[in-house]
Structure prediction request, 650 residues.
Amino acid sequence: MQNIFARLGPDKLRQWLPLATLVILVAVVGVMQPVFLELSTLLQLASDTAVLFILATGVTFVIMLGGIDLSIQSMASLASVIVALTVARYGYGAFVLAVAVGALAGLLSGLAHVRLKVPSFIATLAMGGVLFSTALVSSKERSITLGDVDRNYQTWVTGTVFGVPNVIIIGLIVLAIAHTLQAHTRFGRYSAAIGAGEPAAYASGVKVDRQKVFAYVLSATFAALAGVILAGRLASGSPTLAAELLLPSIAAVVVGGTAITGGVGSIWRTLVGALIISVVRIGMTFLGVNIFAQNIVFGAVLIAAVAITIDRSKIPIVK
Amino acid sequence: MTATPEELASPQPRRARRWRVASWAPVMVLVLLCIIITFINPNFMTFGNLVRISQSAMIPLVLGIGATFIILMGSIDLSVEGVLTLGAVMLSMLVLNGANANDYGIVGVFIVLLTGAAVGFINGVIHVRLKVPSFMATLGTWFIGVGIANALLGGMATRINDPWIRGLAVQRFLGFPWGVWLALFCLAVALVIQNYTRLGRYIYALGGGEELAALSGISTARVRITTFTLAGIFYAVGGILAAAQLGLGNAQIGNGRLFTTITAVVVGGTSLSGGQGSVLQTLVGVLIVVVLSNGMVLMGVPPSVQIGVQGLMIIAAVALSMDRKLMRIVK
Prediction:
């Protein structure tokens, strides 16, 4: 009996640790800067988190399977370039085009991973290079600012409904869709099964390859959507627009409590993780930490979170 | 022709031979590449262009050597750019420079090498002691390294005025810059470590089968940490060469180098699953990457396309070199 409690204790603790961290962080930053707890600041925080959350949601599907996607920041940047280049000609079609390119890129990296049996971090690192190169060539290596006419098409990102910024609503829609996919569909169940034990999932007749490819498609599609939103918010597109977002996105997933070994995790945890990252970022800005030097903290947080959440029984040999 | 005792003893001589052909494939690709590019643009085979190729190969070679040892163990190191950037920035602030009064010269170089070793050591300790997969541990230290470099610089760049450091890129010996000779020296050191030391043997043993290596009494934890430390030193040398070549230290000095490094190692034929490959194959891989980009420049292809080409090369090379029968699960 005691044994069970001993085992249950830390696990329960681990499950609520991210949320407790978030609450404590909000309280600490709130005490330091009371203005932080005002409604307008909190809405601003939520809007700033939306892009990070969407990126992290996509990559959550891949991490649940036990893989990784290192191409999301290049995909998001490419999507912003596509929007900036084509919105004048196609209007809203530009957004559809960008997201479609995302789905295609995800399909390609998924196929490279599954069919050619290239490990996911290498396949997506390489795909990231291809996407970055595409963005560089199509934008002629410069940042493209959206014209005034083009900005009219961005109101679905920049506008507000009853005082709530649209970008938060988009984030909530993504949350609903992703949560449904992850918790209430066969795909979600199979992903968790594959992450928990691939040979067992395979033996039970799960079409492992198909689930994996779909996860990479989702990851790249969400990344492209994040890029589209980023282009709208910053009113520009550039091949390095999202370059600084890879590490925070993966950190958000892991900090939320999704294990890098797969099988354990949820979209809710990613939401909590993304909020933690945002609050930490704001806290550091209050403290006057240089935006690039913030990577020191995120890198350390990432390693610590991986070390805490990882399921070591699943990997006898850590490579 | 009679079979040698080794061939008779080998349980699968045919597979061994096929592997030997596979290990020569990169060399053939390199030769073919040289012939094709010469055919398109005869300027390729001039001494001046040869020096240019050696200059662009020296940094990827040093970085690739470090990464080869890691990949031979079956791990991966994504902290290449972090260590290189940190090393280059620290060097630019320690030797005679345009930002502060420091002039530590060779001592500064040693401090940089020590820093590289320290970051590698930290990688190894996080990876082994906390049991964090190497790609996650090194992804973290990659950004920590670049972050520290940024914090040191505060968004500026530091010009290097030390004549010795600048001389690495400018001064020549037998027509080649000293940096190229330094890179070749690193290659020689790496070859000795790989072929004539216990560490080298242990690295192969770990990559070939870690459980077996551990059961044979090898302290796998110590080998892993030592190898990561060693790789860190090579990346720091890469940082010194990069700072010398650019003449300054800035936080963007490492951009894109991880990509070239991994491309070079896997295109050279070193298997990502570990145990197969060598630093000499990495030399071939580096030359393939550099010759290809040199050829593309000669043909007027913009440099931005090259990253994409490298990405495709990585996938192709890994797909061709993986021994898939050994692994059912690919993650």
The mean pLDDT of chain B is 86. The first strand of chain B starts at residue 158 and ends at 159.
